C-alpha cells in the first residue's frame, strides 16, 4: 500500500563548521501547496540527518533513507531538492537508492541547479530524472502530481522539463501572497553561530523571491529569470503571527537575498515595514541580508526605527576590502563609504549587530589584496565575519568567463572525484592563487579576525553570556572553517 503521494527529499550537503541546519523552506512551500491541492506529502530532511558528504556519513544516511522509503512508499512521485552544485554527490546517491527501492516511482528535481539551462543532461543521464521543475515549484508540482494521479503522460504537463528537452523558461509565481504558508517541520533545527540571536525558538522566512542584481559570481539573480517579487507586508506579518501563535517563535531570520532591494526607496520602504511590524501584538526579533550600497543609504533615524521594531542584525555582503576587486564582483561602493556607514550605524544603535561576508580569490587577487580585505574586515567593528574562497557556480558569468568547457558532466566529474568533500569548484582562473594557497589565506583570515583582543571585547559586550558558548566554535573556524560541521 502507498502511504503518501509525494515524498520530498532534501539532499545532504557538507555542513561547514559552526553552520546551522535549518528547515528547507522551499520544500515547506511545495508541501503546503500540494497538501492544499489534496495530496499527501512527507519531507525527509537528509541535510538534517546527515552533516557531510563523507562516504561513511552518506552511507549511514542512505541506509536510513532506504528504510524510510520502504516503510512508507511514495505513491505518485519522489521530489529531490533543492538541488545545488554542492549537493551533487548526495543527489547521485539518493537517486540510486530511490531507483532500487521504488524503481517505478518518477524522480523529479527542483531548486537552483535544476533551474540553470545547460544542466539538463546531468539530471537525466546521471540522476535518472523523470522531470525537472525549474524555478518556483508550487504550481508545477501540483500539475505534475495531478497528471500522475490521472495517469496522463508527463509530456502534457506545462512548466516542467521532460527527458530530451531543455530548460527554456523558469516557473515564476508572481503573486506570492496567493501561496499557502510553508508547511514546517519543527524541532532539532539550529541557526549558525553567526545568525543566532539567542532568543529561541526561531524560524526562517522569505519576504521576497529572486534578486534584482546579477553579480557575476552569484546564481541568485539568474533564478526566476531575473524576476524579483515581494510578498505584501500584510502577508508577511500574517505569517509571523501564525509562527508566534503556533510555534511560539520569537526570532525570524529573513533569508531574502537582499531584504531591501534598492537604496532609492529605502526610507519609504522602511516606513512601510515599521507600520506593518508595529501591528504585531507580540514583538519579534529579526535579521536581514543587505547589499553594501543599500547599507550606505541607511540614515541613523532609519536604523533607530528598524531597531525599534525588532531588527537586531544586518548581514552585509562586503566581499572585498579593495575597491577594484569589489567592483569586479558587482559591488561598486567605495570602502570608505562602507566604513562610514558602519560607524554611523554603530553610533546610532550600538546594539544593532553587523556582520560581514568576504570572498577571497578571483581575477587579479593577490596575497597583497587578500591582506587588504582582511585588514578592512578587522577594522570595521563587525561582530562576525566569514571568509569564503571564491566558488564558481555553473550558469554564472564567472563560470562562463573561467571555463570554456560548459559540458555539465565535465564540472560534475571534477566535483565527484575531488578529494575535498565540499562539492565546490574553487576559482583558480587567470593568475589567481592556487586552491591550497587560497584555503591557507582563508584560515589565516579567520585567525586574524577572531584572535584580536578587540574582537573578544566587542563580542563579550555585545553577546553577553552566549559569548562563552560560541568561543569553542569560533576557535574551530581558525583551524578549518570548512571541516565537517559535526564539530560544531
Ligand atoms: C536559505 C539558504 C540556505 C539555507 C537553507 C537551504 C535550504 N536547503 O533550504 C542554508 C543556510 C542551510 C544554506 C546552505 C547552503 N547554501 Co544556500 N541558500 C539559501 C538562500 C539564501 C535562500 C533559499 C530559500 O530558502 N529560498 C526560498 C525558497 C522558497 O525557495 P527555494 O529554496 O529556491 O525553493 C523553491 C524552488 O527552488 C523550488 N524547489 C526547491 N526545492 C525543490 C525540490 C523539488 C523536488 C522541486 C520540484 C522544486 C524545488 O520550489 C521552491 C518553492 O518555489 C539561497 C539563495 C536563493 N536565492 O535561492 C541560497 C543558495 C540556495 N545556497 C547556495 C549555497 C551554495 C549553499 C551552500 C553550499 C553553502 C554551504 N556550503 O554552506 C549550502 C548548501 C545547501 C544545499 N542544500 O546544498 C547557493 C546555491 C548555488 C548553486 N548553484 O548551487 C544559493 C543559490 C546562494 C547563491 N546565490 O549562491 N543555504
Ligand atoms: S551577490 Fe547578493 S546582490 Fe548579488 S546577485 Fe547574489 S544575492 Fe543578489
Q: How many distinct domains? A: 2
Distance between the termini: 41 Å
What's the CATH topology label of the largest domain? pyruvate-formate lyase- activating enzyme
- Runs with pLDDT <50, length 5+? none
What is the helix fraction of residues, given as a range? 40-55%
What's the architecture of the largest domain in CATH terms?
Alpha-Beta Horseshoe
What integer value in Å does the Rg equal?
22 Å
Percent of residues in β-strands: 5-15%
Largest sheet: 6 strands, parallel
- Relevant CATH superfamily of the largest domain: tm_1862 like domain
How many strands? 13
Overall average pLDDT:
94
Strand arrangement in the largest pleated sheet:
6-9-10-11-12-13
**Number of distinct helices:** 18
Give the overall shape: globular
Helix-and-strand structural type: alpha/beta
Task: Tell me about this structure.
There is one protein chain. With 488 residues, this protein is of the alpha/beta class. The chain contains 18 helices and 13 strands. The protein has helices spanning 25-36, 46-49, 55-71, 88-101, 120-126, 138-149, 233-247, 266-278, 292-295, 300-308, 323-328, 335-348, 367-379, 397-402, 408-417, 435-450, 453-463, 466-480, and strands at residues 4-10, 41-45, 74-80, 107-110, 131-133, 202-205, 208-209, 229-230, 251-254, 285-290, 311-319, 353-360, 384-389. It is globular and about 65 Å long. The mean pLDDT is 94.
